[in-house]
Amino acid sequence: MKPVVFDKDQNYDREAEILKVLGHPIRLKIIAGLISEACNVKKIWECLQLPQATVSQHLALLKNKGIIEGQRDGVEVYYHVVSEQARQIVQCLFTIEGCGGRKND
């Protein structure tokens, strides 16, 4: 077994920020959905059955933190995940064999 090593000089600010942002159930659901396909706001709030304003606030935070980006297609904006770290974290959480993710309760 390897000895435990703590690196006091390593900066984990970006990783901690991603974990904080992903720590909200609605944002976690949004990212999990956007991993499978890019969606517009209307589809997201319809699928999650949440008010449009609520979804927009969460999308704005995810966008400001560099986790998602929007791509305009006419009047619609389609969001997709751009942070590979966030993608891997969420995929790990929901992979049964992967990282000890939870099974359907």
TrEMBL record:
It comes from the Bacteria. Transmembrane segments: none annotated. GO terms for molecular function: DNA binding; DNA-binding transcription factor activity. Coiled coil: none annotated. The keyword Ligase does not apply. Residues 7-101 form the HTH arsR-type domain. Keywords: DNA-binding, Transcription, Transcription regulation. InterPro entries: ArsR-like_HTH, HTH_ArsR_DNA-bd_dom, Metal_resp_trans_reg, WH-like_DNA-bd_sf, WH_DNA-bd_sf. This is Transcriptional regulator, ArsR family. The lineage of its organism: Bacteria, Pseudomonadati, Thermodesulfobacteriota, Desulfuromonadia, Desulfuromonadales.
